[in-house]
Design a protein that fits this description.
Layout: H1 2-19, E1 31-35, H2 40-48, E2 57-58, H3 59-62, E3 73-77, H4 88-101, H5 104-112, H6 115-122, E4 131-140, E5 146-149, E6 155-163, E7 175-179, E8 197-202, E9 209-214, E10 221-223, H7 228-231, E11 236-245, H8 246-261
Antiparallel strand pairs: 1-9, 2-3, 3-4, 4-11, 5-10, 6-9, 6-11, 7-8, 7-10
Length: 266
């Protein structure tokens, strides 16, 4: 067990050091891409320990937002207890992973990587909101797409960590968009047609890399439609890591709970 703990201490320090090298790109909104975010041997181990399909839930079935293309997205919240049904080896791996990946040191490093946008938005560090972490394993199938949208207003920073075995699928990354209508913004997570936006860039879907962006009312991003040939050689696997404004997120979840109790869709 000691050897396992020592080997798993390295990825956190490596990840934090990589985040410290990030350089913010401001067009079309603050974001950056990073490679080599895990030590290579750990990254290969992570790929080998991805759970089977039975561990995932279909997004269409579990969300109140019934978009038809959500049928082609499976995911698993990396919340307390999620590993209980996994085989022993997978459970040990993901329990160790959660112990540092969901912890405060990584959250602070992610927030610090967006220090300049955070200061522009909230002022000095003492005024920054407390954060909470939510993260999911995500797997996409042919037929999936995600129209340009800005995400929930309670999010502060989003990391999309790509889990791909080789460099042959770079076109499958997440795209960043600029609205054709000058000055157009969106305060919530409405999904818009692709034709109303200009695709500024697509973050390469390559091994051991990530796309990070600050959520704002102009952080339009999405996924271009996935064809059968896009996913026949690999699943479009990734980890979504989100820093939320903690108090705003708690209020949002409580409002959803109350609405569900009274049968009101949100």
């Amino acid at each position: 067990m000691t050897e396992t703990l020592v080997s798993f201490a390295c990825p956190l320090q490596h990840f934090v050091k990589r985040l410290q090298t990030a350089e913010i790109i401001t067009d079309p909104y603050p974001h950056y891409c990073l490679d080599h975010i895990f030590p290579e041997d750990f990254y290969q181990s992570l790929l080998q320990h991805l759970p089977g399909s039975a561990a995932y839930q279909n997004l269409f079935e579990i969300t109140t937002l019934k978009l038809d293309h959500f049928r082609f997205r499976d995911q698993r919240d990396l919340a307390d207890g999620w590993t209980a049904s996994l085989p022993d080896e997978l459970r040990r791996f993901w329990d160790e992973f959660n112990s540092w990946f969901l912890g405060p040191q990584l959250a602070q490093a992610v927030l610090d990587s967006f220090a300049e946008p955070m200061r522009s938005r909230f002022g000095e560090r003492a005024a920054w909101p407390a954060v909470s972490v939510e993260t999911q394993l995500i797997r996409h199938q042919a037929g999936y797409f995600l129209g340009p949208h800005t995400d929930l207003s309670t999010k502060l920073v989003v990391l999309l960590i790509y889990l791909v075995p080789d460099d042959n699928h770079q076109h499958l990354g997440t795209s960043l968009y600029r609205p054709k209508e000058f000055g157009f913004t969106c305060p919530n997570s409405v999904h818009f047609p692709f034709e109303d936006f200009v695709r500024v860039k697509t973050a390469p879907y390559r091994p051991n890399s990530l796309l990070a962006f600050e959520r704002s009312d102009r952080s339009f991003h999405g996924v271009e439609p996935l064809a059968e040939q896009d996913v026949v050689a690999c699943n479009r696997d990734l980890i979504q890591y989100v820093l939320y404004d903690k108090s705003a997120r708690l209020a949002q979840l409580e409002a959803r709970r109350l609405a569900a109790r009274h049968g009101v869709a949100q």
